[in-house]
Amino acid sequence: MISCTEFIPAYSEGFKFIEQTHGRNELEKFWSFLSDLYLNDSLRKLVAEEGLEGCYTYWSHSLNEEAADFTMILDEIKGEFIIDMHKCPSKGMLNEFKHLEPYHSYCDHCPALYKPVVERYGYKYYEDSSNCKKASCCTTISIKTDK
Amino acid sequence: MKKLSAAKGRVIITPPTGTPMAGNIRLDNKSRGVHDDLYCNILILNDDSTKICLLGFDLVGIEYTTCEDIKKRIEKDSGIPSANIVMWATHTHSGPDIGMRMYEGTDNIVNAYLDDMTVRVVEGVIKADKEYEEVILKTGKAIVADLSFNRRLIKKDGSVVMNFEEFEIEDITGTTGPIDKELITLSAWDKNNKLFALLVNFSLHPAILVGYKWLISRDYIHYLDEYILDNYGDQAITLFANGAEGNVNHLNYQDPDQLRSFEETERIGKRLGAYVRIAINSSSVLDGKIRFVSEKVALPLRKITEEEKQWADMVLERDKDLVEDMLDGIPDKTYAKMIKGMLVRTDKECETVLQGMAIHNFAFVTFPGEVYVEFGLKVKELSPYKNTMIIGLANSQAGYIPKGEAFSQGGYEVRTAWSSQLVHNAGDILVNLVKNKVLDNLLHQSVKVMERKASENKYLHRDFHVALNLLMTYVYDNFGKDSLINYLRQYSRAYYKPLNEKLNTGDKEALAAYFKDIYEKEEWPVSIIVHDNSVEITQDGCPAISYILKDGGKPCPFYRETYNTVYNTLCENTPFKYVLEYFNDETGACKQLFIRKEEKQ
Lengths: 147, 601
Description:
Shape of chain B: elongated
Radius of gyration of chain A: 15 Å
Strand content of chain B: 25-35%
Number of domains of chain B: 2
Strand order of the largest sheet of chain A: 1-2-4-3
Mean pLDDT of chain B: 94
Structural class of chain B: alpha+beta
CATH superfamily of chain A: Trafficking protein particle complex subunit 3
Structural class of chain A: alpha+beta
Strand content of chain A: 15-25%
Helix content of chain A: 40-55%
CATH class of chain A: Alpha Beta
Number of helices of chain A: 6
Helix content of chain B: 25-40%
Order of helices and strands of chain A: HHHHEEHHEE
Distance between the termini of chain B: 63 Å
Shape of chain A: globular
Low-confidence stretches of chain A: none
Oligomer: heterodimer
Number of strands of chain B: 29
CATH topology of chain A: Muramoyl-pentapeptide Carboxypeptidase, domain 2
Largest sheet of chain A: 4 strands, antiparallel
């Protein structure tokens, strides 16, 4: 059994495996598949019904269960949802493994999964991943001002 | 985008001819006919969790008790919570006198009108509440600098005169305060992009006509409505909500030729309509949930002074033969009568309701009376919402709410009467209440912050079972079983390297400790028995399979390889071999053995 607490290394190794055996394009196809299926009944449904508050609901659940170190802001007045990830539990866990090399572009899966879901409902997705290697990033999902 | 639906309705509330008219003082105050019908316009907004019913009445004011009665009846018959019903008067000065009841002997007519109106409005809301359409809400703004004027003029000697009173233009140095130039719209658009309903907010007394020709009229709002219907189609319902219009009217003191006429209401109404168009053209989509607050509050009433009492006695004696007749303003004799009436009042406070609604960067807040424009501007300054409507004359008729300094300046709005009955600092009290009880509450609902440290939560995200299952399914479906096995081997070799090294030394306790730890974290019952030469793990089900099924998913074919392949690989180059004695693919019930190779069990 691969415990859900061991999923992150299994995920990272899965990315490596798909890229090594079938190339980056295939990996991106997998992320797209995952985005469609994994997020269909959760984030997609919540954003469709609740808008930005759906983002808040989705990540309230997942980030707390993942024991992330974060500040999350839903600012309906600005039309913004922000996750300021001080320490990403996934990337943080991978960084702590001495014996395991994480997939080189592990953090790429986040925008690959979430961006299409929120963009489908007219939101803008922006991720500042400049501190990604240190397991820190900032994601902003906002209402497009040109709507 | 958050889905919203809306319902609309329009109920004629024109009083029968002969009903006494409000907003002007005439001995013969009974209406002669109707220039244009009065309405109660209805807009109900619904985001599935909150339903807000907006009711705009073409009346000079609407009493708290009438509001509460209508709200309770609507709640009873429709289920819309009474607290979520927002009622206001547009303040037309050419409607029925339902509040002050200036003349004796008219109570029966007014009461019959109120009873009939209440029934029709409640029926109208219930009917509207049955037909919702999905809508997109937009808010827009236009700057209107040429239609409204602060009506308190400062004369050269420093005294204050109202712009509807007599004065010489050259004697006026300016006005005591500003105007609110913002015209704000909240528009609802149907799926065909047609205007479904419109809420317009602007601060301007509808007191152009003040009972002109004794005809019932919505004043300039009638022509504003006509403009909207002409330009956006007759399916649109327009609600007009007056703003902080306490000291603002249409009279430009520098223009002595301004007329009291239907032509003037048409000029102002249609000009306002053109500004509404500008606001609509500049509007942006609102995306968010309906945030709403409703708070009952009590406002302190002004105490009638001994001086006022003596003045009233004197005037009533002095003017006993005088016929009260005044279109703009109130005659002394009428003031005196009201002061005498207010003296027998025992209440020290008047009840009212403050409400606010916000969606995205739009909000409205209500005031219970005719608030001075300075207070409206102050609330807009305090509001974090880009477009903030001040809806005056809402939920009760608390009368004028002037600035404190106006009481020493004098003028129409500050004179004690039923139309000016709150304490002198009521405006400051209300601004604080609106800030603390309405705006702060809305802000708290509109902006949420969650801050967590990793140490505050347990790491257990079972959805990862679903994600892993999808990863395995993808690999299996697209590349076949061998690839799935190879992936699991790769994972096992990479992840279990430290455990594999311990097993290599024969450390079966490390193996047992590992399994105890992961099952504890999964909060899953398991039997782990450490024998002399083996570790035996028995489970009635697999936590991963159980969760995938519970989530409505289907475990990947060969899900058992997360046991078989993973742990066989773990045992590579160690004195142990892995035996999966049995495995139920449907439940994951299984017995696993890690056995020393040289030993036979």
